[in-house]
Amino acid sequence: MAHITLHTSRLEHNYRFLSGLFSRHAIEWAMVVKMLCGHTEFLKEVLSLGPNDVCDSRLSNLKKIKKIDPSRQTVYIKPPAKRLAKSIVSFADVSFNTEIETLKLLSLEAGRQNKVHKVILMLELGELREGIMGAEFMDFFQNVRNLKHISIIGIGANLNCFNGILPDQDKMRQLMAYREAIRKQFAVDLPYISGGSSVTIPLLFTGAMPPAINHFRVGETLFFGTDVYHQTMLEGMVSDVFVLTGEIIELNEKPMVPTGTAGVNLVGDTVEYDQSLKGRTSTRAILDIGLLDIDFAAIRPREKGIEILGGSSDMLILDLGDNGKEWKVGDTMEFSLNYLSTLRAMNSEYIDKKIQR
Description:
Helix content is 29%, strand content 26%. The protein is of the alpha/beta class. It folds into two domains: 8-233, TIM Barrel, CATH 3.20.20; 242-356, Elongation Factor Tu (Ef-tu), domain 3 (Beta Barrel). It has a nine-stranded parallel sheet with strand order 8-7-6-5-4-3-2-10-9. Strand 5, helix 5 and strand 6 form a beta-alpha-beta unit. Helix 3 (59-68) runs parallel beside helix 4, helix 4 (85-91) crosses helix 5 and helix 6 packs parallel to helix 7. It comes from Planobacterium oryzisoli. Keywords: Isomerase, Pyridoxal phosphate. One of its GO terms (cellular component) is cytosol. One of its GO terms (molecular function) is alanine racemase activity.
C-alpha cells in the first residue's frame, strides 16, 4: 500500500530554524497543523517540538490536540459557524472572528462554560477572503469590546490564500494603524498584531516588516521550507519533510502511442498524442497511487529520468524510458510533494502514514 512518511529530523530542523528567526525579531508564532488532517501520531510528533500555540481550521483536529495535551493553546483560524459556538469554546482557546452575532454567541457559550474566550479580529486588507472592512472596523470593535466573556487579544489579516495578494510594508502598516486607532479611541492596548504567515516571512529578511507585527501563523514554510512569496526555497531550510512512496504493481515495455479510437478519458479530457512517437516503445510502470489519493501534477519523482504520464482513480502510470536502473515489480518509488498534494494524501484513508526518525 502506498504511504506518506513524516521525517521528524527534517521537521525539527525547520522548526528550530523558524524559532530562531522569530526570536531574533521578538515575534511569537503559532504552528498551523491543518495539513496533518488530525492524524494523531503525526500531531504527537509536532507537539513534541514544543509550540506554544497550535492552529487548525477543523474542530475535530483541535479536539484531538486537546486530548493529547490539554494545556496546549489551540487556535481556530477561520470565522466560526454560529452552530459551532459550543464546540469552539470547548476546544479552541482562541478563534479568529469577523461577525458580531457569532461573537455574541461565543460570549454566551463561554459564560455557560465558565470561561473567557480569546479572539483575534480579522481585517480585510485586499485579499477578499475573510475580514472586517476597514470602514466598519471601529464600530465593530465598539460593539464587541464589552462582551462579558470575550477577550479581544489582537487584530490580524490573511493574505495570499485566495486571490494571491502579497503582503507588503504598506499592508502591515495598515494593521499597525488600526491598533493605534483602538488605543487612542478606546484606551485599549491590544497585545498582538497577527499579520504574519508563511508568505510574510521574506519581509523579515528585507527589513520591510514593521517591528509592531509580533505574531505569525506558519504552516507551509515549516513543513516545506518554502519562500511562498517568491515560490523558492528559504536558504537554510529543507523541503522533504514529507515523502510519498508507491509500489510498482506492473512493469512492461509498451508502445508510446495508443491504438484505437480515442474518446474522453476519466477526468473528461481528450488526450492528444505526438504521432512522431508512433512505433516507438518505452518501459512503463504502474504504481498503487491514484487520483483519489493525489494530484499527479503536484508530485515529483525523486529519481531522475522518470516521467509521470497520468493515471486513473487508483493507478499512477510512469514512463521509465529504457529502464536503465532496472526497476522491477515490487520496487518502491519516492515522490516529493508540495503543500496541497500532501494535504490530499494526508486526507486519503488509502494512503498509510509512517514516521521516520
